Amino acid sequence: RTPDVECRMLVLGAGPGGYTAAFRAADLGLDTVLVERYAALGGVCLNVGCIPSKALLHAAAVIDEAAHAKDYGIDFGAPKIALDALRSYKEKVVGQLTKGLAGMAKQRKVRVVEGEGRFLSPNELEVQGAGGTTLIRFEHCIIAAGSQPVKLPAFPWDDPRVMDSTDALELAEVPKKLLVVGGGIIGLEMATVYRALGSEVTVVEFMDQLMPGADPDLIKPLADRLKKQGVAVYLRTKAAKVDAQKKGLMVSFENAEEGKPAAIEAQLFDRVLVAVGRAPNGAKIDADKAGVQVSDRGFIPVDRQMRTNVPHIFAIGDLVGQPMLAHKATHEGKLAAEVAAGEKKEWVARVIPSVAYTDPEIAWVGVTETEAKAKGLKVGVGKFPWAASGRAIGIGRTEGFTKLVFDEATHRVIGGGIVGVHAGDLIAEVGLAIEMGCEVADIGHTIHPHPTLSESIAMAAEVFDGTITDLY
Ligand code: FAD
Question: Which residues form a coiled coil (predicted)?
Fold first, then answer.
């Protein structure tokens, strides 16, 4: 069969990885086709992930700040929430970005083909769209088909009161009682939104810590605040069964340790959000017909140039492995496009920051203290409590702290963690420090503007260095 479209570069999936790869490939002179099953570009991140969640978290922060203002003499009264308007705001934010992407694709002459793509051979992809089937023959391909929420099989998914993150972002209603299954980043961000909007929120987490992966000391200020706000958190707990009844979802729980009773009794919830992780889409695109290896779990293995086992086919983003983060996907997308265009490059990023946009935010990058201990690394830690920061006191948010992890022998920064408002914005400096091989003195001697929260990074360096010995 003769192909309907021929191109040098085909990108499958228009999430942050895919659109970045397509734009870069086009900029480098490759005629590029971008295949996406949905009408809007932007993938999970723009449509049902990073962006809508942050728009709603902004609203949550405003509600909380308005309540807090009472402490300094300004009373806004109780918030009146117009859910339709809030939903429109979120949709406007998303629409602005996705329309922007469509414009950027057009400007670069990237041809967008809408429909579900599947490989037919190592150089052919068939796209099933509303308008029929399109056969595309390509020279190079970048697979960027992303991931989707894990659906626990024991739950009644045909009941709209059982939600994944996409459903929760729809904001159909503010349930009176919400159960969040999974105390990771996504679960806790959504818990933050719904709690601020007025839901009574319960979180259950199977592991013995919220957000496993972050140092426990970073979690504590968030756990304390959630408790103060009335969010019930149960660790080492599993939501075992959900029984859909007319008056609500009856959920029963089990202790993570077999034989032990659960700390929370079976009870009715108005809605249940399941946020227990994401599964890669690697196994859904007939990659085998292109000869591309896919793991049992659906991940596609790649080398340091993002090449799969088939040299002219690359893979990037959520479907090549953890961490499943947009900024990892975009970095990989750029790299894959550049390598396909003939540049001699490989993955060089040393570290990838993680951020939970909860309240307070939690951000970390590089080696964590827990990891350093487990690996027997000789490290030193500089920790600066925000209770000693003029800016944190001024905004009434002193529960945060900043810590830097140093190699004890070289005094180079190898990791860092921040908990507090705007931690996600602040962590970039620590990432730069690690990438540049900064020593403690480099950070301590860099003049940070006063009074800012960024000073806490320099202060943490000075604490480690012994320049600051008495914080109070
Ligand atoms: P995706 O964004 O998953 O895009 C893949 C695209 O491929 C999709 O558009 C899909 O429709 C398309 N596709 C798949 N199969 C086919 C096919 N066969 N044919 C055609 N098209 C196909 N990350 C952050 O860094 N920061 C955050 O704050 C953040 N918040 C998040 C909040 C939530 C609620 C969620 C769910 C995720 C969040 N993430 C965040 C993660 C982030 O969204 C992902 O890491 C990122 O979207 C991955 O990009 P990607 O390009 O690999 O894939």
Answer: none
